[in-house]
TrEMBL record:
Residues 46-148 form the FAD-binding FR-type domain. It comes from Chitinimonas taiwanensis DSM 18899. GO terms for molecular function: iron-sulfur cluster binding; oxidoreductase activity. It comes from the Bacteria. The lineage of its organism: Bacteria, Pseudomonadati, Pseudomonadota, Betaproteobacteria, Neisseriales. Gene3D superfamilies: 3.10.20.30, Nucleotide-binding domain of ferredoxin-NADP reductase (FNR) module (3.40.50.80), Translation factors (2.40.30.10). This is Ferredoxin-NADP reductase. Coiled coil: none annotated. InterPro entries: 2Fe-2S_ferredoxin-like_sf, 2Fe-2S_ferredoxin-type, Beta-grasp_dom_sf, Cbr1-like_FAD-bd_dom, FAD-bd_FR_type, FNR_nucleotide-bd, MRET, OxRdtase_FAD/NAD-bd.
Amino acid sequence: MALLPTSLVNFALPALTALQRSPLAGFLRESVFDYYAGWFHPQLTLKRVFARVLAKQAQGRDTVAITLAPSAHWLGALAGQHLPLTVEINGVRHTRYYSPCAATRRKGLLEIAVKRSEGGLVSNWLHDQLKVGDYLELGQADGDFGLKSVGQHQLFLAAGSGITPILAMLRSLQQQGGGAEVTLFYYGRDARDMAYLPELEAMFSRMPRWRLQLALTGQTGRDGALQGRLCPAHLSSLGELSQTEAIACGSFGFIQTVRDTLTALGGVASLQVEAFTPPVFTQSDSQPVTLRYARAQQSKAGTGAPTLLAQAEAHGLKPASGCRMGICNTCTCKKISGVVRDLQTGQLSASPNESIRLCITAPVGDVTLDL
């Protein structure tokens, strides 16, 4: 139970931020301060952001929307960005990454959507154990996925929980007046499982130049819905796409299909993508390589199949990591030499002393890492 009112705590937090820039900062240990200050209020911290759970609401059959009130340390988020969320389960801290469902101003409310994953420790805990009034620890928002500019035609492609960052962008466009032509292709197995569908249908019905197209891979018989997975035929009604700005979010497989489909149709003016699942490997990637870890002074036998992150961990190293799908950049590491492949884009790079994300990069031959 908080001993201090939330309004007083958030009024005081900017003063604590200023204190850290003063000569007294050297006498403050963040861990000690946060521990004792937490007795008075969970949000009373030097830097860390804690958010109070204000509401939980079902979105489809397996997704819950969580509304949060972050402390005054929160700096806000742009549509399309992501943030780390940390929970403690049975004494162990676990961090996962989520995209806010709307752009938020500093000190504004925050909404995230969590899809229940079979066997997912954190997602199931958030669904079943998290209560209104609890506090969650957040990191600051990050990432450059989002609207850079709005062209004559904005095409969005979303699958499953990939709708959440795209919903944030659509809400932002609606607030700006929604003058551009916008098309959303929203893929899911069953309409009853598709998060935010009623809101999207209402939103698009109010925007004369916006078009919502559902595509179902399992359910049949819904009027107006396409059937099956994304293919060129689904987008044929759009006509010429050379002036179209495209944004896609979904699983790694969905993103690969988006790339292939748009290429088959002649390409678009620009394409931004974000995958929320790790890359998939094939047997052809399993050629033997040598991985050298410079700081550990080790050389190990590896292959071109698992990511450099997975192989470093298998070799006994403990590089920093977070989302494990190329979003959070926690695993960024310097590659000293060698050729690597970005598993999201397929591009090869042989540049020395370049920064790579270990979780979405695989070796193509021998590689030396600054680990």
